[in-house]
Design the sequence.
């Protein structure tokens, strides 16, 4: 999966669709978040000191990954890229508002926990 030619291979086979791009971005961000969180916990175990920037970078990457995955699930549930190629204007506005609200709520919760 980490092969730099991976997108080129998928593009040549015409399977590098936008929904797949969102899924790969979500998986990559979740892997980054898990790696950073693991490093944060290892630092705590080895030194006993908390590295707050490392913790919040990991949590931030996790929030982005979760938001992208929820966006993908909502898009697929509305039939985007499965049955139809476009969403209605009203559907796009509702989706944008709900994903923005979810993301802002997650960021507010992160700051609430931090302070």
Sequence:
């Amino acid at each position: 999966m980490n092969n730099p030619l991976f997108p080129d291979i998928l593009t040549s086979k015409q399977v590098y669709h936008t929904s797949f791009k969102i899924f790969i971005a979500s998986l990559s961000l979740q892997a980054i978040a898990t790696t950073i969180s693991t490093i944060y916990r290892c630092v705590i175990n080895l030194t006993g000191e908390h590295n707050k920037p490392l913790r919040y970078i990991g949590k931030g990457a996790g929030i982005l990954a979760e938001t992208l995955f929820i966006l993908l699930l909502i898009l697929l549930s509305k039939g985007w890229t499965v049955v139809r190629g476009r969403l209605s204007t009203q559907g796009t506005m509702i989706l944008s508002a709900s994903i923005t609200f979810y993301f802002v709520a997650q960021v507010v919760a992160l700051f609430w926990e931090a302070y």
